[in-house]
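We emphasize that the prediction below concerns an isolated chain of 422 residues; any contacts that depend on oligomerization or on bound cofactors are therefore not represented. The input was used exactly as deposited, without trimming of termini.
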Amino acid sequence: MQVEKKQSYTTSLILVGFLYFIFGFITWLNGTLIPFLKAVCQLNNFQSYFVTFAFFISYFVMALPSSAILRKTGFKKGMSLGLLIMAVGAVMFIPAAMQRNYYFFLAGLFTEGLGLAILQTAVNPYVTILGPAESAASRISMMGIANKAAGMILPAYMAGILLKGIDGINEQVKAVTDVAAKEQLLNELAQRIINPYVVLTIVLVVLALLIRVSPLPDVNDEEENPDTDTSTHPSIWHHTYLLLGALAIFFYVGVEVIAGDSIISYGTSMNIPIDDAKWFTSFTLGCMVAGYVAGIILTPRFISQETFLRICAVLGIMLTIGVLTTTGKTSVYFLASLGFAHAIMWPAIWPMSLKGLGKFTKTGSALLIMGIAGGAILPLLYGWHVDISGNRAAYWMMIPCYLFILFFAIWGYKMGHKKANK
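Result of the prediction step, given as a token string:
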């Protein structure tokens, strides 16, 4: 019986890990899409960061509906539904490329985000619930490795397709005076995205069907936190630490997306060729994988997830100062190194925010998913600052974000626990 339970646990982790791999690829592809669509649709910096806005704001829109959907469908059917919605978003890229319409691209990104919101609302608490709460950060770190491995490998491959020779094409577009010739160049560039997104659509549909017939077990609300008595507080709003955790997620996702999705553009702004700069996102994710490995090894055996989160928040502040006070590739390396500081943040904030919610776990998960909207709003503010003050100076806005995460790691995660558990 114990062997069967262990096999079910392992199988579930493997299946969920594959889901993390898929949405890691889609999420981290934005770093490639920003310079690609900036060229294809002739955008300024502020406009180009609507790529991240359209993608991540969908989490805010869909988070609470996702909770309601999961209460009706359960985790497994919800995951399958999320993948099918993502497939719809992916296929929308085909007419968007044919018409070279930025709004259609944004609609596709928004739809992909809607599907991912359902998927993440199901998957993240699922991983938290699968084992002891004190080792949740370690399990989520394992999932994070799958997520970031996809982000390291596949977007770099996509960048090789979408961004190949784009510096030369940009120069040609600037030099060409004939409108028809200019449109022809940009239309040919836009066509590059069609075949990859046809393949992506097929993969998402097949994966949705596989998840639907898989042995992945569902988890009932009563199983999520059976040791917690929520009868004294029938409302989720009494759990102050959850609300602060959602804000911590907001700031964490914001700085992670800024660091990961802006690094290619940051490199090219310092005259680093695009063929070199296209690898910078992979460097960032490589640092994140190193951080996840550290999390798996250290938590909770040698260090608590709370302490590790404090260390990483301080490290984020120090590395950002390094970005602001250096130039050239040194500054880029400081920016990429932020990946290590970011790695433990999601795995630690998530269980710290959900602990003790009991029957409110799905709704609490949805509120945390709403915090992902930080990836929509903060990068857009960054893009606005870039147009005003330049790429490097705009990174100052990340420091207050790390300060709030540090506050949550020291005090915020404790607020409301005593009242909630009386």
